[in-house]
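hiii, so i know i said id send this last week but things got crazy w the move. better late than never?? heres the sequnce for the chain we talked about at the cafe, plus the structure i predicted for it. fair warning i was half asleep when i ran it
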Amino acid sequence: MDAILLRVMRTQAFCIVLLLLFVIPVQPVSADENDTTLEAREAQAEFLPDMETTLLQWRNIHTTDGLLLDQLKMATYEVHRLENGRFFSNAITPETLIAEDIPACYINELNEVCSGKVHSILYEPIPGTEASVSYAIITTLRDGTRTETVGMGFSQTPEGHMEIVAAYITPEQFSVSYDVANESTVFTWRPACPGNNFYHTLYEHNVPATKSTWNEMDKTVVTNFIPASASQFTLDWTNQSVEREVYYTLTCWYPAYCDEVDCYPAREDTRIHSGNSLAVPVTEDNQAPRYAGILSAQFNVDEVQTVLQWSEITQQDISTIRIYHAANPILSAEQNGVQILAELDATSVEFIHHLPVDWMLTSYYAIGLVDIEGNIQLDQFDVSGKVGPIIERNLPVSISSLQISQENTTIHLQWDLNPYFISGDAVLWISSSSNPDLSPAWQEITRLNPATLEHHMTIDVAEESWYALTLEGTWGSSPSTHHDNRIYLDKNAVLFTPKIQETDPGLPSEEIVEKPIDLPEFEIILQDENYSLSNGDWITLESETNQSYTLRFTHSQSNSTIRWTDALNSNPFWAAGIKTDDGFSIVIAEPINLIHIESTDANGKISIVRVGIDWPDIVAVEPENTTEQEVVEDKAGTEDESVSMPLLIVVGIIAVYTMIIFSMKKKDELLYSLEEE
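okay and structure toks below
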């Protein structure tokens, strides 16, 4: 009985214990690692041959200590790597560092997550690596204390970890730059392709290239036949428009080939290890910017300046603004006479062109832009982006005190000249009315040398007229010629009233003697031919071209007027000789063969010389005739002769008959007239 009771009691006790095991929750059992140094645990490394990458892992300490967990949330890890050796405690150097500032835990992580948290990084050994490698994890506490215990199996990987990576076959020191001036992209590198059977392949792509993304990324082959020994390549964009940011990669490419044994695929190292791919894109841009605003210019004579104003630049990639200036309309900044007045900041909206006090010019201005890549607007100026002509005159009329006098049929002009006038012509005008400035009423008579300060000319009909003298040339520091067409009465314009000669009625008209001006003998000296001509002389010159012939000569009689005409023209047109610094010039255009040069001196005496021009013969190239053509032409000529001979006989008979009839008629008319007498 007691034995049965004891067995029942044991059974009840076992059930109670079993029930308690099911009711009470089971907690995982792990020993606390209450290590105040927070040394990393279970550091291990695994090399992945297919990826040529090492996977390194470690974990935090396991602890339920709140203070240690708070310390973990403030701690960081460093990773060190050493080939062919191991780390020793408190002997870590910066040279082995490969990663740092890895948080042990984040401040907002739960303690359960922070305790024993696993960390991992991937490291790619450089190509050509073949070594036993050790990794060490260093803990840095919040106060800067470093844990460099590097216990094996704790914070240092076990010995025996091997890393083997094939050497790279790619170019080195790859560099790309865009040459704005030459509109080209220049590539340079250090050749590293082994053997002349390799070629360099150049790729372009829109995103950076990496070993892991190379196969899937979009890329374009620019060229794959750059020789293995080459170290430079250039892409020329002169005839193409380009404006982009792009990445480039250069590889060594071994083409596929077949031999007697087998065929072999192409080989190419695309691991992007040697710096053979751009990490930052290069900007290629040969598109010059264009100013699309409005430019205005105002000359202020009181301030001796021209003020330029323009609308604000709205383009985002503009570096500077250029102000161009010229004495002629600006079509291109590269045309002759165009200068850069200023290069201003892109935010500028005004420029003041300060002028010298002796400035006399007709100016043209234009705005050009320079972008941040260095592209310069040299042409394609919008109409609103340039302005002119702007008349800029800082000097008064340079001809003054113009006076006119008459002696018989000769008019004598005298004037004063402003010394700021450097060189050029004085233009003599005539008008029937006193029109200010040049208008259609003024007609050009001739061009003079203003430095002579006087001029004589003969008039055919004396009538009341206005004469004006303007200047066309350069003043002071002005860079180009200017025509000052201002006409001010009693300054550079004067009224001529013919003088009626009073005679003594007691004297016969033949006794009125006009005193002539004493002049040297007429003579024209041909400058290029070194030959002189007197009145009535004739000379024939030979032209080297069939374009034109320029005749340059000096004159023995100053203040004479020169004009010339085509002597073989039945209705000649007289043209004035062109006044030069030391004489005259006449431009004769082919096919004029003979000209008359007429000189009228201050006494009204006219002298004439004649100049003939022999133009080069134009040699015509006769086409070669075949024997068959010659036979046909000879036959045709024979036929023409056979036909024309009878025709000539008939024409001759008709002509003789006509002459007989005509002579008989004349004889009858003569007899009839005699009978009437």
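btw The first strand starts at residue 41 and ends at 48. thought thatd interest u
miss u guys!!
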